[in-house]
Amino acid sequence: IRISHTLYDLDKIIELNGGQPPLTYKRFQTLISKMEPLEIPVETITSEVMEKCTTPLSDDHDEKYGVPSLEELGFDTDGLPSAVWPGGETEALTRLERHLERKAWVANFERPRMNANSLLASPTGLSPYLRFGCLSCRLFYFKLTDLYKKVKKNSSPPLSL
To answer: Which BP terms in the Gene Ontology apply to this protein (predicted)?
Structure first.
């Protein structure tokens, strides 16, 4: 699997369930247990791989294809705070490692509770990175599953994971 936004083929799940989506998590688990095991994520792209890739750029490339700055779009940027969620894959992978280091979190995971600070950026928050594709759902799944197996022997991850 080189590119995906979901772990499982949703059409296959619906087909296995007689043309209807599963309505409970237990039914979903039953259906995916009948499917082929998930493929592991592909290796991370290295600088050696990227060195083999070349893209010819014309002198007017930035004018044609560049992303304009806020100033170029007419926005006043004086006094703007820095981004609440720093973007990118590197930040996502750093947060994933920080997240997985908290083995106690995995061992005692409960459903998240909303509180006044829930919407503020967390140093281990992963939602925007999963949402915008900076973090592979497949990589997250396999790393979390491996860690969970080490922490909770002979047990399935809880529903909330």
So the answer is: circadian regulation of gene expression; entrainment of circadian clock by photoperiod; negative regulation of DNA-templated transcription
